[in-house]
Amino acid sequence: MSASTPSESLTQHNAPGASPAPSAAAAAASGSAPASPAPSAGAGPAGTTTAPFPEGFLWGAATAAYQIEGAATEDGRGPSVWDVFSNTPGKVFEGHTGNVACDHYHRYKEDFGLLAELGAKSYRFSVSWTRVLPEGTGKVNQKGLDFYDRLVDELLRLGIVPLCTLFHWDFPQALQDRGGFLQRDVADWFADYTTIVAERLGDRVPWWVTQNEPQAFIGNALLEGHFAPGLKLPYRDYLTAAHNQMRAHGKQVDALRAAAKAAKVGYVLATQVQRPATEDPGDVEAAREAIFSVYERHPWNNAWWIEPVLEGRYPESGLKLFGKDVPDFPASDFDQIKRPLDYLGLNMYSAGTWRRGKDGKPERVASPPGYPRATLDWLQVVPSTLYWGTRFFWERYKLPIGITEHGTATRDQVFLDGKVHDPQRIDLMHRYLLGLARAVKEGVDVFGYWAWSLLDNFEWAEGYRERFGLIYVDYQTQRRIPKDSYSWYKEVIATNGRSLLGPTAVAWDNVTG
Ligand code: GBH
Description:
This protein is an alpha/beta fold. Helices cover 36% and strands 13% of the residues. It is built from 17 helices and 13 strands. The longest helix has 25 residues, at 235-259. Bound molecules: ligand GBH.
């Protein structure tokens, strides 16, 4: 591949017309970045020290209950599908489980101390359904609810805005035993659970997510079988489960609106970003077509999971591809699924590359050999991911966007000097955030960014092998060690992104090329 190779350069450029930001560079050099720098501090001749993110931007970090809490059987918590799955030999790397995880259930104050020290404006967490309802429905476990009550109060005390994800994959085993997502009742189970949590936390939590990444907990879990409960359902059943999952989302939105009047409600996609090989309009259109269509028979697309939710119909491309496997359902279901949302949560890690083929159709462009990637093979380093992802979704849906997850996995270790050096994470976040800054500059409405993750944690089927944290966790001692990336991100937050504009940065306008 030569001319047709995606030309995203991983070499460093100086921004044409964007000289280095003296204030950020100086602050970094002196190690004394002010907590909230005056807007005009050190403005250079080219005016490049204007913060590249809007005022009040929600810089944050994200986690999920099963990945960090541990205390799996404490205070009345019931089993989720992930408890059963991870405790079944052969399902998770080296038999790791979430039984103890980061012991966050007992250490949340220490962890939030580090979150506050980071300067985080917001924190995204999820609620463990079976802490609140051990059987999934029925009797409420007050002790479980109390935990989230304390957690939210602690965040507010520290001045950190909570974003609560109601469902991040830990589906109650008792409900799985009753048929799970294949039952139409699942929509009411979700709604009732949502009401209970929203009635308790809705007075203090402004931001809500109904569900995190349906592609993973329906597609990966019920079709491909790599995630709990590890089923490989026939295609039609898998699409039935997806359909009920979206009905559940609709009912959750209603439950939230009823119980928490001021709630800002969103839905989170495992965004499969597609970007153009070049900025030639033909390639841009090819990537746009790819990002909003179902082009292969696997769960990793956006359209099947978002079009019903925002537009009240399945995408034509998917209906055509799935054919007879599309289940029967009353057309009125779309009245339950489609709901106005306040924002869209996009988890974005990587992107595929597309160009306009000779026949005029979008054509996938393979990455060249040796292309950079994280320790997880699917995580190729594509700095323009946040740019194209936010731009395409903004142009189509005109909903404010929160980057509800972004980050990378590296082979971290404690070095001889006692520190954890993770230059790959810093470089990757730096490049991607410049892409996000470009989107903001071009008018895309992005209101927040939550780094995945605050802590190293239980990376699902990969167990503790993969480390995504800004903070290293020694699972033997539960000692936390902030990584180099933690200090780096702290500076980004303190300067509202100005520190990204230093002399070694990839230029905004050069992110793709
Ligand atoms: C998120 O999942 C989760 O929300 C979070 O819990 C998790 O820890 C984090 O990211 C890191 O993995 O290339 O076609 O094979 C991300 C799940 C897994 C979605 C890989 C896309 C690749 C699809 N992603 N998957 S493909």
